[in-house]
Amino acid sequence: MVIEEAASQLEALGNESRLKIYRVLVRAGQTGIPVGQLQERVGIPASTLSHHLKRLVDAGLASQERQATTLICRADYRSMRALIGFLSDECCAEEGCVASSR
């Protein structure tokens, strides 16, 4: 992962509402969650939710899929793991604990 991509994703998650939304998406699993249920869980207006979801999608952290009349929202777990790895891969690298923790 390049540092610019990580910075963009962290910036997207740096908003309290988007972080709440993302946590609900992560909890929903691979099946995702209909946007209406997501709105109920986070308790924000539809237009505000749409704005925040677009930001998460643009950052590569989430996806949306239309199924008939329902919009399903999902966390992108591959991107999430890549971001977590980016943050933790070099943990304590200068102390030498990285090799011993793997």
Question: Which characteristics define this entry?
Answer:
single chain, 102 residues, alpha+beta, Arc Repressor Mutant, subunit A, three-stranded antiparallel beta sheet, 6 helices, 61% helix, 14% strand
Question: How would you describe this structure to a colleague?
Answer:
The protein has 102 residues and is an alpha+beta fold. The protein has a single domain (3-88), classed as Orthogonal Bundle (Arc Repressor Mutant, subunit A). Helices cover 61% and strands 14% of the residues. The chain is built from six helices and three strands, in the order H-H-E-H-H-E-E-H-H. The protein has helices at 3-13, 16-28, 35-42, 46-58, 77-88, 97-101; strands spanning 33-34, 62-67, 70-75. The chain has a three-stranded antiparallel sheet. Helix 2 packs across helix 4. It is elongated. The mean pLDDT is 92.
- Mind describing the biggest β-sheet? 3 strands, antiparallel
Mean pLDDT: 92
Residues in helices, as a percent range: 55-70%
Kindly provide the radius of gyration, computed on alpha-carbon positions and rounded to a whole number of angstroms: 16 Å
CATH superfamily: Winged helix-like DNA-binding domain superfamily/Winged helix DNA-binding domain
Shape: elongated
**CATH class category name:** Mainly Alpha
Strand numbers in spatial order across the main sheet: 1-3-2
